[in-house]
Amino acid sequence: MSLEFLWYIPNQVTAGHRGEPVTADHNSLETLTAQAKALEAHGWKGALVGTGWGRPDTFTVATALAARTTTFEPLIAIRPGYWRPAHFASAAATLDHLVGGRVRVNIVSGKDDLGAYGESEDDQADRYARTKEFLQLVRTLWTQENVTYHGEYYQVTDSTVAPRITPRGDRRHPTLYFGGASEAAERVAATEADVQLFWGEPLEGVRERIERLRALSDELGREHAPLQFGLRITTFVRDTTEQAWADAEAKVAEMAKNQTEPAQNPHRRTAVGQRRLLDLAARGDVIDDNLYTAPGRVGGGGAGTTWLVGSPEDVAKSLRRYRDLGITHFVLSDTPYLREIARQGDQLLPLLRE
After folding, report:
1. In the chain, what is the greatest distance between 2 CA atoms, to the nearest angstrom?
2. Strand, helix or coil at 256?
3. Which residues contact 154 (CB under 8 A, 6 or more apart)?
4. What pLDDT, on a 0 to 100 scale, did the predictor assign at position 52?
5. What Rg do the C-alpha atoms of the chain give, in angstroms?
6. What's the confidence (pLDDT) of residue 273?
7. Residue 293 and residue 284 in contact, taking contact as beta carbons nearer than 8 Å
8. 15 pLDDT more than 90
9. Mean pLDDT, range 28-33, rounded to an integer
10. Hey, how many other C-beta atoms are within 10 angstroms of the C-beta on 278?
11. pLDDT tens for residues 259-307?
């Protein structure tokens, strides 16, 4: 299976995300479009656009960027609860039609500020049971007509989404990415997702999770094409190994001086997957040659918790080891975003495509 390489576009109200330069126009359409066009120019397939209450609306941002580009594929993060499944299926089908099949979707089920957008359900089991129904219904609405579905959380009667998704080779609908490390999340991924995304864990942890998810797929009777796997991680690349580690350590030292509590989504650091990353620091600052865990101790969260550090050759070697475990979708990033889109697109991606 071919490898796919995506980036990350910082969908943020507050400037300075993960060391990005602070500018007044950091989230303007012009700035974000410049990043999307740079991704096209430097060999990237597209980019993840993050979601969360208190951030610009992800679907709106992704739509604007898709309209201003020609090959850029937005991986649009969305949350069940923000959207009803039929409404989302229709919106995504419409955008997919308008931009020639360039839509990808990342379903996010972690805790968020539920009350702010009118939700009250907060139990993990309920959250993932609802997500399972959401995935089932959206996929069905994209691939069938006159759909009637009566679940515990969602119901539709004689529902047909228009315009219809146009099949393109093996692609019958937008790829459905999904994250989550809890037992409940893995059971949903094993049966309903197209791609399971992992954070930047050590190789052994990723190997174990891939084996477990494949076994779960068989045990639970997965009905779709085999589950694929992706890695979302910070790649800290410099021309030489020595320069990369010097710059990485200096950046962590600066983060330590300026460390503050995360402003958005305080639940993130209690999530199972995030705790797995934070706990890695107890095993040392560096795991698997160049997986740097120190950022997580000084405020790094999500994909910024662990970094792969080194020269293009060092980082390519590490990413190939993840590929050998079964990872085929890579979502990489570092700041400043525009500079690193070009640097890593020109220096790292050619090594990974050899």
Report:
1. 62
2. helix
3. 84, 85, 130, 133, 134, 137
4. 85
5. 20
6. 67
7. yes
8. no
9. 96
10. 17
11. 764 544 454 555 776 777 778 877 889 999 999 999 999 877 788 899 9
Q: Which residues contact 259 (CB under 8 A, 6 or more apart)?
A: 298, 299
Residues 6+ apart with CB under 8 A from 298: 252, 255, 256, 259
In angstroms, the CA 192 to CA 339 distance is: 36
DSSP 8-state assignment for residue 144:
-
Q: What is the C-alpha to C-alpha distance for residues 199 and 271, in angstroms, rounded to an integer?
A: 12
Poorest-pLDDT segment among 121-130, 291-300, 337-346: 121-130
- Could you tell me where the DSSP H helices lie in 110-240? 124-143, 183-192, 203-219
For residues 177 and 175, give the distance between their C-alpha atoms in angstroms, rounded to a whole number.
6
Contact call for residues 210 and 326 (beta carbons, < 8 A): yes
Structure tokens at 63: 């739509």
Give CA separation, 334 vs 41, 131, 137, 139, 345, in Å: 17, 30, 35, 33, 12
Is residue 287 within 8 Å of residue 203, measured between CB atoms? no
Q: How many residues in total does the chain contain?
A: 354
Return all residues near 210 (Cβ < 8 A) that are at least 6 apart: 229, 325, 326
Which structure tokens are listed for 149?
């579905």
Helices 337-347 + 29-41 axis angle, to 10: 10
Q: Phi and psi of 215, rounded to 5°? A: -65, -40
Strand partners, 305: none
Alpha helix ranges (H) inside the chain: 29-41, 58-67, 85-98, 124-143, 183-192, 203-219, 241-257, 272-279, 312-325, 337-347, 349-352
Alpha carbon distance 345, 67 (integer Å): 22
- The confidence score (pLDDT) of residue 261 equals 47
Reference 341, options 99, 61, 38, 67; nearest CA is 38
Cis peptide before 167 (omega within 30 of 0): no
Using CA atoms in the order 203, 329, 319, 297, what is the torsion angle rounded to 10 degrees? -60
Q: Report the first-to-last Cα separation within the chain, whole angstroms.
A: 14
Specify the DSSP element, H or E, that contains 148. Answer: strand 147-150
On the question of pLDDT at 114 being above 80, the answer is no
Structure-token pair, residue 236: 């800290």
